[in-house]
Each structure stands twice: as C-alpha cells, then as structure tokens.
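request received
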Amino acid sequence: MPNYETVIGLEIHAELATHSKLFCNCDAGFGGEVNTHTCPICTGMPGVLPVANLRAIEYTIRAGLAMNCQIATYSKFDRKNYFYPDLPKGYQISQYDHPLCYDGYVDFELEEQAKRVRINRIHLEEDAGKLVHGDVTGDKNYSYVDFNRSSVPLLEIVSEPDIRTPEEAIAYWRAVKEILEYIEVSDCNMEEGSFRCDANISLRPTGTDPLGIRTELKNKNSFQHVLAALKYEENRQTRILDDGGQVKQSTLLYDVETGRTSPMRSKEEAHDYRYFPEPDLVPFEVDPEEVKRLETELPELPSTIRQRFVEEYELPSYDAEFLTATRYIATFFDQAARSSGNPKACSNWIMGDLSALLNSAGQTIEDCQITAGHISQLVEIIQDGTISGKIAKDVIADCFNSGKMPTQVVQDKGLAQISDTSELEVIIDQVLGRNPKSVADIQDGKMKAIGFLVGQVMKETRGKANPQLVNQILRQKLQD
Amino acid sequence: MSKISLEDVQHIANLARLTFNEQEMESYQHQLSRILDYIEKLNQLDTEGVPPTSHVIPIRNVMKPDEKRDLFQREDITANAPSTEQGYFEVPKVIE
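response:
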C-alpha cells in the first residue's frame, strides 16, 4: 500500500478589535444584552447605507504587512449571497476578487524546525449574528437570533495548502494568533468565538503532485479539537484510500464527545454564492504612503523578539519562548533587562517567583502591581549587595501585595544587608564568645564548624548579614 | 432557442427560495431569456481595454471614523419582527 502525504490548508477567522462595527456605529465589543448593539444597518433593514470603518481597513492592512503580504492598491467589497437566519440581509459583505492583502507568508517553529506557510490572501468581511437553538425557552421548535455580533469586522486569512501534519496546522494557527495579538488588531479570544478556523484536509500518495479530494472541517475555536479532528480525518481518509475507495468531498462536523467526524447536512447549493460588487460601498484606493506609515508603526514581531532575546541577551530558548508569550510580557521583560543590565536574572525572577505569585493569586502579569521597574530594581539591589537573594524573595512578595518599590520595602522593614564590618564584628565576637566548643573544633582543624558559626550570625541578624563578609571576618578572627 | 433552460429557472428559484407552478416556470424561462438577449446586444460593443466598472461615479475611499454609538432601542429594532422572545428574534428551527 502506498504511503500518503497529508495536505492541509487553513482559513482562519479573527474578529477585529475595533470600537464600532464594520459598516455602522454600533458597539463591536463582546457581550451586552441580546440585540442591544444593533441598528437598522447591521440588522439589514431596507434602504440603509453601509459606510466602511476606516480603522478596520487599517487593521487588515496591518495584519497583511505583519504576515509579509502584498497590499492591494485597489480594493472593493462584494456581496456573497446565501440565506441563513444569522445573516439578516441575505448576503454577507465580503471581498471576492480584490482582497486587501495577498501573497504573504508566516514563519514559525515546530520542534525546533523552521517552517513557512504561504498566505494566499487576507480579506475583510462582516461577521454573522449568533444563533441559539432551543435553549432560550426550551422550545425545540425555534431558533433565536442575536445580532450583537452581526457586522463586526472579521478578518479571513487563507493559507496555501502548505501544511503537512495536524501538529503543523496547530503551530501555524498559534503563530497567526500570536502575530494578531502582538499587532493588536484582534484579541483572539477563542472562548468568545473571536478567533476560529476552518481546515481543509486531503491525502495524496507520497511523491505525487495532484491534490487528493478534500474534506472541510468547519468553524472550530479550540486547538485541541482541531488537532483531534484532523488526526481523525487523516486516519479515516487513509483507511478509505487503502480499501481502494474514494474520499467524498464534504463539509464535516467534529463531535467532541465521540471523537468522530460526520457530514454536515449540506446547505442546498452551498457553493453558489453569486458574488457581485457591493453597489452600496464605493471601491477604495490604498495610498502607498499610508501603507508605508503603517509598516513603520508595526511593532517588533514575536519571532524577531525571540531571536533577539537569544542573541542579544544570551537567554536559553526556553526563556525566550516564555518571555514572548504575549507582547506585554515581552515589553515588560525587555524594559527590566535593559535597565538592570542583567537579563538572565530578570528572566529568572519573572519565570520563577513572579509567576508563582501570579499563579497563587490567580492574576495575570498585566493586572498585577509589579512593573518592569520593580524587577530591575530588585535585581540591582541584589547585585550591589543591599539584600541577599533569599531576602529578595520576601521583598518581591511584599511588592506584589503592596505595590511598593523594592527599596521602599527594604527600608520600611529594615531588610538591608549588614555590610558594615564594624557592626558585624561586634555580633561575631558575641557569637564566638557563646560557642567556645565550635571555636575549639575549628582550631583543631575541623573547618566544618565554621558553617555553624555563620549560621548563628545569620540567625542573630535575622538573615540580614552579608554571608560572604561574615565568612571572611570569621576566618580572619579564628586565624588570629 | 431559449438561453435559459427550465432547470436553470428551477435552480434560480431554489436559490431565491421561491416556488412556481409549471406555467410560471415557462413564463420566467421566456422572460429571463429575453433579458439575456437584450444584454447580449452589449456584447456587440468593443470593450477591449475598458476595465469592468461597478460604480459609474468615480468616488473612492468613503469611510467613517471608528466611533461607537448605540443609538437604537432594542424594542425599535425588533418591532417589525413576526416573533420575538426575550429580546431575540424568533425563527423557525434551523438544524446544523
């Protein structure tokens, strides 16, 4: 039996984080009472005129630039016609033959291997409303429509069929999510459905070129589900082909409970959308100067930042990965690293103590009281010997709860390390006087006992003595 | 010779969610074919080098700033709906 190569392409949908909807002024934010973010335009009343949201177009171009796309100089909207109760006009305003962005690519890593998936196109369209089936009144004979999401700007990112494994599909999907979050055009909230994808999958004998017959998995908003569904489809199609059968081109639903896919009831004439230019919206010309401006304003992207953290700050790639999970944490770390001059120490404090504090408080780094300034100052005062690493753990916990700066906490609680030789000598003399046996042991050559004496001094100073200094003074005194 | 077959009429009717009897079907077949004949006349013109046009007035880049204002009461938006329930539009059951 032949070996097969899997071919996957993704269509990713991301709602844009604009204030208002794509063609009217309704609130585009998530939530809100049913049908309260609606107006005659986004509910498709007769005679209304849509006007395009400038920021939505800018966000689309920004996304295109971040994914290395060409930006169209001429673009327009088209009508995609079909009937469904969540689509009040009987057509969706989308883009057909002149998408805003095309011919791009996304680079990412999978198991330390560099991967590239080409982007066929990125276009802008309006989202549909939300359908609720039966659970409003419990009456199973009805469905219910909420148009709050209707006409929220939606990005559609269409990849080329460059993906070869289900794992690679997820890695690519994650990379796109990360980019959209970094450039702040979408919050990519998967639970709220603002980030989802359709996946096409087909198999072909290894080493051959023509694509096999594909099936489509609809509207998924969970990485795990897409991964499981693609793996299931991969196996199912392999079995069909091995048995000499043919895969039937179809749209499938993945059942999370049973872990199987099954065909969706085909919407009649599902693919006869009769696209035509949207007569209510005028075409637009994109000014290359404007594109240049958007390109200059683009923030550093996660893959670039990771590389920089590894090369410039000499961080292990594990740290670099952790510290670029979001743009916020990357900026946070970057500031702390720069101002303290000790990137690895900052990384350790963020990944260690700060993360543990955030976990136990159930907070995120964005909404906690610790700033990059706290971390860099903490690292600095450890470095200059003001406090020990051990005391620093208490200091950061205090800062976390109070929001105070580390130096303030050290001052308020009198935690500064005693590095004053004369002050330490007094305490050491007292300790030596109280422990004649240990002193004798050491003078007999049992140097182990010196550790006990250091411990006694630390105890006496409640951990504030500079341990190196204590050690040094002790040895000097015992030699005399 | 009709440019439009009865199957075409049926297909278009399905897409538009319309139902016709046989007589109506034939009548539309005839009418739609005549429309195509009429449009056919335009093909006599030489349109080589003329870009397809969807708007005759050369206006470009009409856009609105991204400002949100919820100006409508839900009661007004759902007022014309045949049926509502707890603020939702109520529609016949759709099964995925």
